[in-house]
């Protein structure tokens, strides 16, 4: 179902303060091809747990840059096993070793940084979305992360018209910590994103 900006605005007003599980259930009921994306960064376990609790077999798209820390890979494997995640793995077409030999990880001011981001994150993501063609996309975007994300809400539309659902949008870290503690869920903070220099920088997936 296609939503207008006005409808999304009204729904966002209704959904503020509503438990994430109810928002997810609403979205799943209206979806034909939903998916959830993850990179197993800090607090990603919340969206993965909440969504799979409602829809256990939903595709979980993981675009692995190839530059995750050992802790993140171990965390990912733990969550995949514990939550029985239906992971669909997408990786760059070039290995990290090959890329390291040619350009390494370019700094933010390096002209090659845009190409690097395209190779390790944007192209695999586009490939995943083209193959799955979702109508509903669950994310763990939250208010206060970046200026762009502050302009979004629980519901928003991607450039391709896909309904993005961020049920934890209004949660802060303390609220998420409580959510994880109540459910005995592990978190992981030794995460590295090679496309970002600063935590509040966008990588391009949500712009």
Total strand count, please? 6
Secondary structure: helix percent: 40-55%
Do you know the CATH topology? Rossmann fold
What's the multimeric state?
Answer: single chain
Please give the CATH class: Alpha Beta
Q: Order of helices and strands, N to C?
A: HHEHEHEHHEHEEH
How would you characterize the overall build of this protein?
Helix 2 packs across helix 3 (44-54). This protein has helices spanning 5-15, 20-30, 44-54, 70-83, 96-102, 113-132, 147-150, 173-182; strands at residues 34-38, 59-63, 86-90, 136-138, 155-157, 163-165. The two termini are 22 Å apart. It has one domain: Rossmann fold, CATH 3.40.50.620. It is 43% helix and 12% strand. It has 207 residues and is an alpha/beta fold. The longest helix has 20 residues, at 113-132. A six-stranded mixed beta sheet has the order 3-2-1-4-6-5.
Short description:
With 207 residues, the protein is α/β, with parallel strands linked by helices. It is 43% helix and 12% strand.
What's the layout of helices and strands?
Elements lengths: L4 H11 L4 H11 L3 E5 L5 H11 L4 E5 L6 H14 L2 E5 L5 H7 L10 H20 L3 E3 L8 H4 L4 E3 L5 E3 L7 H10 L25
Parallel strand pairs: 1-2, 1-4, 2-3, 4-6
Antiparallel strand pairs: 5-6
